[in-house]
Design brief:
Elements: E1 14-19, E2 29-33, H1 34-46, E3 54-57, H2 64-76, E4 80-83, H3 89-98, E5 103-106, H4 108-115, E6 130-133, H5 140-150, E7 154-160, E8 163-170, E9 184-185, E10 190-194, E11 208-213, H6 225-231, E12 238-246, E13 252-257, E14 262-264, E15 267-269, H7 271-278, E16 284-294, E17 298-307, H8 315-323, E18 334-337, H9 351-359
Parallel strand pairs: 3-4, 3-5, 5-6, 6-7, 17-18
Antiparallel strand pairs: 1-2, 7-8, 8-9, 10-11, 11-12, 12-13, 14-15, 16-17
Helix pairs in contact: 1-2, 3-4
Length: 360
């Protein structure tokens, strides 16, 4: 075979194929170019990822965040990466303490599971410089619990396989002042909020679709020209499918996935808002809200809840709790209690599975 050469390598050449999360449907193979990976590493290193860090990677190696947001930037600077075969909450806590891990990342579900691990109370997490949360809105009570019980500060971010994966980051100093924000765009990222119908840029605080442009964007989807064309508009902005808004200071906030939003009695309902309230209840360890068909209202919410051990909260109690904090049309019509919720290899809750189960 011919020797491998880099002499003709171009920035736009595909380095690898990584499948998207598939949380809203069938996964697609995103083409990760060499340029996309390099630009992402530059952003990571500018964003406080150091050669002295030790990163515990609980993400599978088909996950862009684990690979390119932390592992590769740390390794290329001479740092250390500890890779687990799968995510085990108790093992993760032990490894953080034993290996003096300085950075740990995960989706909110991962951090919820850490707090229910049998060794949570005695776990020593003082070596952590920060934890990075992404993939879904991080419940504020969970941030406060980590800070209060373990002294751990959070940086929140936002990324996606098709762009980055590092796109936004929120500094630890802003974690409480801008609670719920994904932060500001990283370097070399052009971010806008647009009307999903007209594609016109919206003013601050107006909810619309988040669109992105920059050198860390994918070159398209492998063997899927139609999806590649649909992802980008005429100005070469990638349409993320995430509903968001930006405040007057330039901080972005994710409201929900466009595909997760449902309309009940003519009103838009964002499940993430309902989930954020559910997480404030002391009996709730994990939850997900989806829209279900309804003859009267068109769609209504159904909440799936995992209760904390030894908590026997019932449906009427939780519904009354929600009514105290939300408009009536946002309150789910029903609550289903479960032992677990289906989740992807990266830890994201699979709402498509919940919808499929309920419609079967």
């Amino acid at each position: 075979a011919d020797a491998v050469t880099c002499e003709t390598l171009r920035e736009s050449d595909t380095a690898c194929l990584l499948f998207t999360g598939g949380t809203t449907g069938k996964p697609k193979a995103a083409q990760m170019s060499h340029g996309q990976i390099v630009w992402n590493m530059i952003n990571s290193m500018l964003g406080d990822v150091l050669g002295t860090d030790t990163f515990l990677n609980i993400f599978p190696l088909f996950h862009a965040g684990g690979l390119f947001a932390f592992s590769l930037p740390i390794l290329i600077q001479g740092g250390a990466v500890i890779q687990t075969k799968k995510f085990d909450p108790a093992q993760a806590l032990d490894l953080i303490e034993a290996e003096r891990v300085t950075i740990f990342g995960g989706v909110p579900t991962v951090f919820q599971m850490l707090t229910t691990a049998p060794n949570w109370e005695k776990a020593d997490l003082r070596s952590l410089r920060y934890c990075m949360s992404g993939g879904a809105p991080m419940p504020i009570p969970l941030i406060q619990r980590f800070q209060k019980e373990k002294g751990v500060v959070f940086r929140q971010g936002f990324g996606m396989t098709e762009f980055g994966p590092g796109v936004f980051s929120l500094a630890s100093a802003d974690a409480e002042r801008k609670a719920g924000s994904i932060g500001r765009p990283n370097f070399f990222v052009d971010a806008r909020i647009v009307d999903s119908t007209t594609n016109q840029t919206l003013p601050p605080k107006a909810v619309g679709e988040l669109v992105l442009r920059g050198p860390s964007a994918t070159t398209g989807y492998f063997n899927d020209a139609a999806a590649s064309r649909a992802a980008f508009d005429a100005e070469n902005y990638l349409h993320t499918g995430d509903m968001a808004y930006v405040d007057e200071e330039g901080y972005f906030f994710i409201v929900d996935r466009l595909k997760d939003m449902f309309i009940s009695g003519g009103e838009n309902v964002f499940p993430a808002e309902v989930e954020a309230v559910l997480y404030q209840h002391p009996a709730v360890v994990m939850c997900a809200v989806v829209g279900m068909k309804d003859e009267k209202w068109g769609e209504v919410g159904r909440a799936f809840v995992v209760r904390k051990e030894n908590h026997k909260v019932d449906e009427p109690t939780l519904l009354n709790f929600l009514r105290e904090h939300l408009a009536n049309y946002k309150v789910p019509k029903s609550i289903v209690f479960r032992e677990t919720l289906p989740h992807s290899g990266a830890g994201k809750i699979l709402k498509t599975e919940l919808r499929r189960e309920q419609s079967a």
